[in-house]
Amino acid sequence: MILTTVLGFILIILGIWGMLTQKNLFKMVIGFSILDSGIHLVIVSLGYIKDKTAPIIDSDILANNASSQVVDPIPSALVLTAIVIGLAVTALMLTYIIQLVNTHNFDSKNMKDPLSITSYEELKW
Amino acid sequence: MIRTVLIYATLILMVIIFFPLLSEIKPLSQLNPLAKRYVEDSTKNLNSPNIVTSIVVTYRGLDTLGEVTVLFLATTGIGFLIKRRKKNGEKGAFQASEILQTGSLFLFPIIILFGTYIFLHGHLTPGGGFQGGVLIASASVLLIMANVNIKLNHTVLHFIESLSGFLYVIIGTIGLFLLGSFLDPKFLPLGKFGSLFSAGAIPIIYSLIGLKVGAELTNIVDSLRAEGMEDEK
């Protein structure tokens, strides 16, 4: 399934591009999510075997040699957990943005966008 | 200008790094020995038809325990960042429509039931603790959308979460004492292949994971809701 792998790598590059070029904090998180999905797609596509079925055994598959009938179950198991971790990490990042915007003091004179990364200069060097 | 050049140079370097990886990937024609062993052992010795489940819960059970810990840490981080301030009875501005309120009351028990079905049948059908837990959390999202001022009982949520995490480790330790390997589910009867009560302790462990994930994600959603209400006033 080489096409899916290529698509996954394109999504990874796209996600990195989004994280590097976007100024809006939420768009950076979206870039991270796209990178995440790309990695999942690559890992799952590596376990795919042509013309094989899902690794859930029923009597038909069991009848003729189960291990020659199914795709590789290990990448699916890894991605299953990675998706949930991705969800939790995204939620943590969004919370961090909310807290950053809430606790930061913006002067009313200089009209800075609180959601733009350029408004936060404390750690800049 | 320099910034833009650097960004695109990084991206081109990434492409150069990934290209050899991509060009050397050959599509698999058969399972590698490890996967083959998992497939055969899962059907023969574990009686669990869903091999992804037996990898997640048994063969790679320690990874799953670590992953549940990461999820717990993320939830703790969110709870730490969003301080729950005492609200003195102020109401959120948003009022849900009649259809949403009635529909959510109708759908809430059904979605909870479906989530429970998914994590109980994790060893038989495509599904399991994580998916079922996320479904249960989505039911509470619906409840919060229908009534913004609803108060979820945090004592119960934390109790479910801690208890299921505790029991998960206890079951793993029972496997260690009785059979000599951590998280070995074979200390319970293996049952008939393909029936609900089979595959040893796998359904119990996956149900505990489902409850834990459901309670944690409900907590995350509720924390974000509390923060949104702070902004509205």
Quick structural summary:
The complex is a heterodimer of chains A (about 120) and B (about 230). Chain A has about 120 residues and is an all-alpha fold.
What this model shows, in words?
The complex is a heterodimer of chains A (125) and B (233). Chain A is an all-alpha fold and 125 residues long. Chain A has a single domain (2-48, 69-119), classed as Helix Hairpins, CATH 1.10.287. Chain A has four helices and no strands. Chain A has helices at 2-21, 25-46, 59-63, 73-103. In chain A, helix 1 (2-21) runs antiparallel to helix 2 (25-46). Chain A starts with a helix and ends in a 22-residue tail after the last helix. Chain B has 233 residues and is mostly helical. Chain B has one domain (2-232). In chain B, helix 3 (51-59) packs across helix 4, helix 5 packs antiparallel against helix 8 (202-232) and helix 6 (129-146) runs parallel beside helix 8. Chain B is globular. In chain B, 35% of the residues are buried. Chains A and B meet through helix 1 and helix 4 of A and helix 1, helix 2, helix 3, helix 4 and helix 8 of B.
Q: Count up the domains of chain A.
A: 1
Average per-residue pLDDT of chain B, rounded, comes to 82
- Main beta-sheet strand count, sense and barrel state of chain B: none
- Estimate the global geometry of chain A from the Cα principal axes: elongated
Q: Give the distance, in angstroms, between the N- and C-terminal Cα atoms of chain B.
A: 42 Å
Question: Any idea what the radius of gyration of chain B is?
Answer: 23 Å
* CATH architecture heading of chain A: Orthogonal Bundle
Shape of chain B: globular
| Poorly predicted ranges of chain A | none
Structural class of chain B: mainly alpha
Which chains share the greatest interface?
A-B, 48 and 55 residues
CATH class of chain A: Mainly Alpha
Order of helices and strands of chain B: HHHHHHHH
Helix-strand sequence of chain A: HHHH
